[in-house]
Amino acid sequence: MSSDLAELEVSVWRGDAVSGRYEDFRVPAHDNQTILDVVSWIQQHLDPTLSYRYACRVGMCGSCAMMVNGVPRWTCRTHVKVALQDNRISIGPLRNLPVIKDLATDMDPFFDKWVAAEGRHHPSRTRDEPIEQIDPEDAARLEANKGIECINCSVCYAACDTVAGNADYLGPAALQRAWTLYNDAKDDGRQAILDAVSGTGGCHNCHSQGSCSHYCPNDLNPMAAIAGLKRATARSFFKRSK
């Protein structure tokens, strides 16, 4: 961003998905300014009715994710100078989710798909039994570790063109969670997971375009996890067919 730039031209989505529109604002430019700083300034100084979400402001919660110039991003960790195009910034609600109002989306469909993908822990022991000891260098444990830093921000879900074209598709975050649990020795739901992700809207709907991995702010690789599920479900299918 130019040091002599005094103002930013910002277009922000207002309203819902049907009757909403982009509204233009002029915001003072500052060094080290983030997209969330811009949104907050508009709400605090120009329009207090602007609706949006944020919590931690340091990239830990994921709640501030929005579309910035058409790209899904954590707005608290995205500096204006990274996203600025011709002195303009367009800020909208996350793609592929229902818009509640302005920049706030309904996350229920995203989390409903976690449930549909069996993305919950299936305990293998009761609390009365001794804790199972797991080798931290075990191959399956290392594979499970690759996805545990997901914070449910839905950036990958918004980036996914398969989700955009197929409302039944479980999406990269839910499938990555399923793969993490499938590789967790303490999870007792391996077959339930494979059954859930091999059906309608499951892992085989993925087109392997890689947007989920490209845009993940935590540098996770949901596409690799989905590929793992594809292999596992195929092995399970042929094993049952014998």
Condensed summary:
The protein has about 240 residues and is of the alpha+beta class. It is built from ten helices and seven strands. The model has no long low-confidence stretch (mean pLDDT about 95).
Biggest sheet statistics: 5 strands, mixed
Number of domains: 2
- Beta-strand content bin: 5-15%
- What is the CA-atom radius of gyration, in angstroms? 21 Å
The largest beta-sheet arranges its strands as: 2-1-5-3-4
Task: Indicate the CATH topology of the largest domain.
Answer: Fumarate Reductase Iron-sulfur Protein, Chain B, domain 2
Q: Give the termini separation.
A: 63 Å
Second-tier CATH architecture of the largest domain: Orthogonal Bundle
What helical percentage do the residues reach? 25-40%
What does this molecule look like?
The protein has a five-stranded mixed sheet with strand order 2-1-5-3-4. Strands 6-7 form a two-stranded antiparallel ribbon. The chain has 242 residues and is an alpha+beta fold. The chain contains ten helices and seven strands. It has two domains: 7-105, Beta-grasp domain (Ubiquitin-like (UB roll)); 108-241, Alpha-helical ferredoxin (Fumarate Reductase Iron-sulfur Protein, Chain B, domain 2, Orthogonal Bundle), CATH 1.10.1060. A hairpin with a 2-residue loop joins β6 (99-101) and β7. α7 (172-182) packs antiparallel against α8 and α7 (172-182) packs across α10 (222-241). The mean pLDDT is 95.
